[in-house]
Amino acid sequence: MIEPPTYTMVQRLAAEALGTFWLVFGGCGTAIFAATAIPVDAQMAVGVGWLGVAFAFGLTVLTGAYAFGHVSGGHFNPAVSVGLAVAKRFAWKDLPGYVVAQVVGASVAGAVLLVIAKGIEGGFDPVATGFATNGYGDRSPMGYNLASVVVIEIVLTAVFLFVILGATAKRAAVGFAGLSIGLALTLIHLISIPVSNTSVNPARSLGVAWFAGADALAQVWVFILAPVIGAAIAGFAQALLLGPDHDVAEVTSAE
């Protein structure tokens, strides 16, 4: 019998950085470049809209999970790492490294997106356009207030963690975790893009907020705190709602 490979911490962190890069580059890139209609030669090129952005984020997680999940567990999200640790499905000692790798991957993606965006004729202003950042009040796509944004980010991140915990449990159907998780993230975006531009992922929010000005950075705390709270709630509640899964091996363990 061939033993499965054991990955080093460096390999796991590299996989997390690459996967988070792909999530931000694919999801936020779609929002920046393709979401809105653009005039071309006196005609209007049709953009993908919020529906397209929702599918873009779902597809990045789906493809990233199958590409990198066997190496690192495919978190690509500090809130997911926290929720898994609270649920005792991930080692707390590995959490700081994962979070740093995820934020670095997201930030590199944001920087690359900005370089590309600035190549358009007439220039590009990430502050004026919003640069796919999250926000509340006048920075919410439809003007939702702070309370609405906090509630939806907590609830949807908790649901996302429930899906992840259930789909990756020992008793779950083998091989379908990436598909169910990717579709869940798509649905999450369909619900909440109008409210908060959808975060449920502190790394995704930070990765573009760095480049979008002081107002974006002033609100990013919400999209760090609320997803972590939602993930922690799901981690604590998973045994009660989904049943114990004590025999699940940590797919991210390097021991």
Automatic annotation (TrEMBL):
Question: What's the superkingdom here?
Answer: Bacteria
| Alphabetical list of Pfam families matching this protein | MIP
Q: Can you supply one Gene Ontology CC term for this chain's record?
A: membrane
Q: Which InterPro entries match?
A: Aquaporin-like, Aquaporin_transptr, MIP, MIP_CS
Q: Which residues form a coiled coil?
A: none
Sorted alphabetically, which SUPFAM superfamilies does this protein's record hold? Aquaporin-like (SSF81338)
Q: Where in the cell is it found?
A: Membrane
Cite the GO molecular-function annotations of the record.
channel activity
Coarsely, its chief localization is: membrane
* Family the UniProt entry places it in: Belongs to the MIP/aquaporin (TC 1.A.8) family.
Protein name, as recorded = Aquaporin
Origin species, per record, is Aeromicrobium flavum
